[in-house]
Amino acid sequence: MTATTPVLQSVIARDRGLLWHPYAPLHGALPYEVVGADGPRLHLADSDGVRRPVLDAMSSWWSVVHGYRNPALDAAARGQLERFSHAMFGGLTHEPAVALAERLVALTPDGLDHVFLADSGSVSVEVALKLALQYQVATGRPERQRFLTVRGGYHGDTFAAMSVCDPVDGMHATFPGLLAPQVFGPRPPIARSADEVGSLTRESSEEVRAWAAAMTDLAERRAGECAAIIVEPVLQGAGGMYPYPADCLRVLREIADAHEMLLIFDEIATGFGRTGTLFATEWCGADALPDILCVGKALTGGYLTLAAMLCTTHVAETVERSEMGAILHGPTFMGNPLACAVAAASVDLLLERGWQDDVRRLEVGLTDLVAAERLSSVDEVRVLGGVGVIALHEPVRVVEVTRAAIEHGVWVRPFRNLVYTMPPYVCSADDIAHITGAMVAAVEEVHG
């Protein structure tokens, strides 16, 4: 420990070598300091002390859909703080948890009538996988200890969640000896727009037919090992911001039914309107309802960490009748009342604001990203709901692109070969035009 007085140094200098940041070394690129936030904007300071407001094109990793310092969410947090901020959920219950669970059951696709409140998206995936394994044990198939999924997926950073991420490109190849081996099928065919997500049928799409045949064959060979299928419906997030046809979900539902596997949809990134439907599974209507659903990120409007797993009565009662009786999981902060109160207010606000109009406005504005297609560095542009992606031919120079975008008044966090945005729903048409213009300009300045 040194004798320096931290208050005499900048926050950025004090951070250096002290704090790890996601997927970054201790002494990596200097971060920017957040000194304030309001609406869709962050107020940043750099290492030279220069301060500027920037539009948050990332919604703080896809969660701050209602913007910062939202009056309704602030009021919900203050109101719950005045009552109690936390109580263990073992043997106790409280109004915020019950009220949130009631909202989630009413809002999510039909049949998902039972709720497990987790403290992060990754934990909700862990719980979903555990539940699927317990279900198979309860039905007399204890040998089913693996999961069927597709390449390109991303489900979180805890160990079971890592095991169902892409085994090569999923950021977790460093841990092959510790991760359970899973069964991976081919990545679904890409869909570059909402029309391609929703309008294709297996009869009209040769790519989808070929993919379906490959997945069906794989399932026939490996189903005896597999407890469930898990995918991110319609849009793979951190695996590449990769949309795919909704018909693929129908194929997976048919495969699950044919081989007595459960179907898990990870809607942590796609839920609450981001793809243009309230939940991405709704692109299929009632043709591909999941047995288990995970939600998170936008659930609390980015205020607090909270996620949920929902399942059908059939799954819940099967486990309840078994020797185990309960889901074998119970986080310390399960059902945290402060987070639940804010989440309930966030869900109410989503419906009151009219999320459909918000996401439609985002989608219309994000189509301006097609201006990037004239650049030699750009491979393609993809837009789906409130998601806009510029895919490059080469890996993004993250530090340079981030700095260039900030100079244009926008915060982005590129990865791999992607410069993308998932902006807050409260962004105006002018805000979206500002974001798209800054993204195109940053790519042009850095990559050409």
From TrEMBL:
Q: Where is the site labelled Participates in the substrate recognition with KAPA and in a stacking interaction with the adenine ring of SAM?
A: 23
E.C. number(s) listed in UniProt: 2.6.1.62
Alphabetical list of PROSITE patterns matching this protein: AA_TRANSFER_CLASS_3
Q: Which residues carry this modification: N6-(pyridoxal phosphate)lysine?
A: 297
SUPFAM superfamilies (alphabetical)? PLP-dependent transferases
Query: InterPro entries of this UniProt entry?
Result: Aminotrans_3, Aminotrans_3_PPA_site, BioA, PyrdxlP-dep_Trfase, PyrdxlP-dep_Trfase_major, PyrdxlP-dep_Trfase_small
* Compartments where located: Cytoplasm
Example GO molecular function: adenosylmethionine-8-amino-7-oxononanoate transaminase activity
Top-tier EC class: transferase
User: Would I find Repressor among this entry's keywords?
Assistant: no
- Biological role: Catalyzes the transfer of the alpha-amino group from S-adenosyl-L-methionine (SAM) to 7-keto-8-aminopelargonic acid (KAPA) to form 7,8-diaminopelargonic acid (DAPA). It is the only aminotransferase known to utilize SAM as an amino donor.
Report the protein name in the record. Adenosylmethionine-8-amino-7-oxononanoate aminotransferase
Native source organism of the sequence: Luteipulveratus flavus
